[in-house]
Prior knowledge:
Elements: H1 7-13, H2 23-33, E1 50-54, H3 58-63, E2 76-80, H4 91-97, H5 108-114, H6 120-125, H7 127-135, H8 145-158
Antiparallel strand pairs: 1-2
Amino acid sequence: MPTKIDNGAQVAAEHGIERSPKWPAAEKAHLKAHPYCEVCGPTMDPKVKVQVHHVIPFHFCILLDRAYAEIDDRKLITLCETEKGAPAPNHHLTAGHSGDFQSSNVNVRQDAFVFFRMDESTIKKNAHYLENVKNRLKPWAQMTDQDRANLTALIDRLYPVPKVGG
């Protein structure tokens, strides 16, 4: 059985960042609550494998001093992913990252509805997807200080620090 590739961890490692030791439990809990790809919907196709996608890459959150967001379920969505060249969908790359694992689509939750039950080739021809490609987050190394400040403000607005004992 092939080993599951963790593209997020690989990209984060390029920045010297490792996953939180709490990640496996957070991932398991999320998959229990959300077992299907949000784009494919429920399927019985055994070729369709799912994984938990961070709406904003977890290493961006850590680099912006928002480490709590790695395991914050509000920032997670289940998407399918397959090995390169395998005959199965890869909405993780297409919808979640707008085609580039170095980046991300911060609107993936809404786009899961837009792209619902579309295959990758249909999505890639969709005007909304093409606009997403133009507007996806820049890779970390290409971000300006203003880009990083804007992303920090977005994280703080969409995923404020959870209140403890609230």
